[in-house]
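Working notes for the structural subgroup meeting. M.R. asked for a predicted model of this chain before we commit to crystallization trials. I am recording the input and output together here so anyone reviewing the notebook later can reproduce the run.

Input as submitted:
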Amino acid sequence: MERKVFPFRGVFYNLEKVKELEKVLCPPYDIISSKEQEDFYKMHPLNIIRIDYGKIFPGDSLKNNRYTRAKRLFQQWLKEKILVQDSSPSFYLLSQKFAYKKEKFVRWGIIGRLKLSQKGNVFSHEKTSSSPKEDRFRLLRAIRANTNPIFAIFEDEDSLVEKLVKPYFPQRPFLKFEFQKIDHCLWRINEPNLIRKIEDVFRGKNIFIADGHHRYEASLLYQNYCRKKNPYHTGREDYNFVMSYFTPLNSKALKILPTHRLLKKIPIDIWEKLGLYFEIKPCSKSYLLDLLDNPCQKGYQFGMYIGKNKYFLLTLKENLKPEELICEDKIIEWKRLETSILQHIIIEKIFEVKDSDFGSIFYTQDLEEAICKVNSKEYKIAFFLKPTNVYEVRNIALAKERMPHKSTYFYPKLPSGLVINLL
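Returned structure, recorded in C-alpha cell form:
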C-alpha cells in the first residue's frame, strides 16, 4: 500500500512578534457568525480571520475583494516574518483538554499532510454545496495555503499510532495556550525514524473525513486546476496534499454534539399526524435531557418543545420500521439514522418543509438557545436529538453514502492559524 500521510514544514506565528497566540487564532470559517467575524477582526490586527474568512465590502471588485486582500496580507505577513516556516518536515502532535458535561477529556491527534485521492480512498459522510466549495477554492488559488486542517478520523483499535506518540505527552510542548476555554498543547515530531513509522502505520488505515468536507473537495478542485497548468506534473507537488488532523475514532474524547432543529410553522393537525408514527408522552425538561444524554436508550426517540414549558418525548411506534417508511434509495443503516427519521418523517412528511427551504429550519447545538428561540416566538417548535454515533458515521462513509444535512458536529473544533501548510 502506498503512503497517504506525510510530514510537512509547518508555518507558525512568530512568537517574537505575536505575544498572545490565542488572540490571532479563530474557529473554522463555517461556524463563524457575522458578529463573531467582527469580534475576531477587533481582537487583533494580525488575527487569521483576515486571511481565512475576510470581510466582504460593498465596493468589492475583481481586483479588490476578500481573496485578493487575503493574498496581499498573507504574502506581507510571510515577508515581514510575522509567519515563519519550520526548517525541517515534521508531524505535529496536538492535544486539546476540554470539559464536556462536567467531565474532563483530552483529545489528541496528529497534524500532517494527507495525499489527495480522486479514487475514494478517503471516505466522506457529509453532503457538500457548491457555494462554500467555490469560496474555499478561490481562497486556495489566492493564498496557496491551508490555514485550518481537515478533521479526519481513523480506526486505531490496536493503538499502534497512540503507542508511537505517547512518549511525547510528558515532554514540554513548543506551544501551549488556551483558546475558547480549551487548553492546547503542540509538539513537533521530527525524528526521521518515528516519522517513517507513522507514515507506515497509516498505509493500511481507512481515513474518514469528520469535518471539512467542503475544504477537502475544494482541495481536489485546486489539485485539478494546478495539474492542468503544470505540463511536468509528477504527483509529488505540494498541491497534491491537504493539511489534515488525524485522531482515532475509538477515542472516548472524540465527541459528536447533536444538532437540534427549529421550525417556524406548526401544522393545524400536528398531533394527529405525529400520532400516526409516534408515541407522544408529555415530560419534564430534566427527564428529557437525561434521556437524550443516554445513548443506550432503545428505540428511535426525539424531544419536542412547543413553548410555555411544554416538553414531549416522541418514540417511533414499535410496529413501524424506518426502512419501510423512508422511500429514499439508501442503505438500511442510513434510513435508521435518527437524523434521517426526523428529516424525512417529521420535517418533510408532517411539516412539509424541505431541507432546501432557506430560513425555514434553524440549526443549533445549544439546547438552551433552542428553548429561548421558541419562548420568544421567533420559532414555533424545536426538535431535540441524541448525538450521532461515530460508528454510524464510519459505516455510512464506508457505504459511500452521505448523511442528512447537519448530522454531525465534532467537538472541539480545531483553531485556524495554529499551523499553516504552504501549497
